[in-house]
């Protein structure tokens, strides 16, 4: 349980709010690339409580501007893409991607004082199928060199899911290893590709269902919290999963691609009671199977809203709860998570929760976010704001799904694999 003040600290994301200031110190996804094709229409975007217009100019450069024109407030997302910028439909003022007013065509001389206009504009970057923006003060940091953003297009699936709740409770679901054995449990034995675990032919669904009570441990890292969950499989074997809370609003975990890659959920507030969950999963080894991608995308409609939601009671089928799934809500993990976290309330009232030992990672992540907020308030920078290329290797951001034997020191085991990944990267880097 935390106090009402602490809950507000972590959940309110508008300009000037503590968590809002924290989230603004990092690059944040603002749209999928597929939503803004070259030559396409501008988009009206709401992110962190701010209404903005996202567009590509006629040279393909991406801009993100305050949605209301600096003249008399007309909505710029309806504007014309031309002459190196976005032109307001009301009186033709033209803005470039930096928020400079290039033309005021109805004014004498095209607007003698137009250079005095400084329209709200945020820098954007496009990478890995995502358009990112930086909404914080000063110079933008480096975009973290995440492995999931650096995959060939056919090795990675990127989409998003609309959530009707605060961003924080949904991200806390990602760092809660125990819920896998309940919320996502399949009651029948599952044989599926891409659910592999290193060291066995068994899918992770079956291993998770076998053991409801993993031993948990956490480790604070420079990027967030590394979470170990270890399930005893008998005969000296253990199922080890390593997942990660990454500051300030994303998580990486073993997903549909098992030991061949991993999944990421990045929870970006629209406002304090709605958010977009940007979802990634990738395979290092091979292009993704179309059937796996289709299965993931089948959970959302063409506007990225969940097909199963509160309005249809997640299509819960109580008959299927006897033999197929724990929830009766089908096999899609996004649906299960949307139900569990959305139904906590628009903003979970954490003054009423009862934290237990298995919530260890959630407690650690909240403390780290509080530290980041305090760092900003003291005039510094929070952890994982990366400014130097040598800090941007991130090979120690490990995600594991391994059946192991004879290992007792999980942290040592993970450190060994991280060192191996780092050596691999150096060899690959030196060959390039
Ligand atoms: S309100 Fe946009 S140009 Fe006048
Ligand atoms: Fe989940």
Explain how this protein is built.
- This protein has 432 residues and is of the alpha+beta class.
- The protein has 2 domains: 28-133, 3-layer Sandwich (Rieske Iron-sulfur Protein), CATH 2.102.10; 147-431, Naphthalene 1,2-dioxygenase Alpha Subunit, Chain A, domain 1.
- The chain has helices spanning 4-11, 18-23, 167-174, 204-210, 290-297, 320-323, 333-342, 360-377, 410-431; strands spanning 28-32, 43-47, 50-56, 62-66, 80-82, 85-87, 94-95, 101-103, 121-122, 124-127, 130-133, 156-163, 196-197, 200-203, 215-220, 224-234, 237-246, 250-253, 261-271, 274-283, 400-405.
- The longest helix has 22 residues, at 410-431.
- The N and C termini lie far apart (51 Å).
- The mean pLDDT is 93.
- Bound molecules: FE2/S2 (inorganic) cluster (FES) and fe (ii) ion.
- FE2/S2 (inorganic) cluster is lined by residues 69, 71-74, 88, 90-93.
Which hetero ligands occur in this complex? FE2/S2 (inorganic) cluster, fe (ii) ion
- Looking at this structure, what is the CATH superfamily of the largest domain? Naphthalene 1,2-dioxygenase Alpha Subunit, Chain A, domain 1
Q: Structural class from helices and strands?
A: alpha+beta
Ends distance: 51 Å
Strand tally is 21
Most strands sheet? 8 strands, antiparallel
- Tell me the domain tally: 2
Q: From N to C, what is the helix and strand string?
A: HHEEEEEEEEEEEEHEEHEEEEEEHHHHEH
Round the mean pLDDT to the nearest integer and report it: 93
Rg over C-alpha atoms, rounded to the nearest angstrom:
23 Å
- The helix tally amounts to 9
**Principal-axis shape:** globular
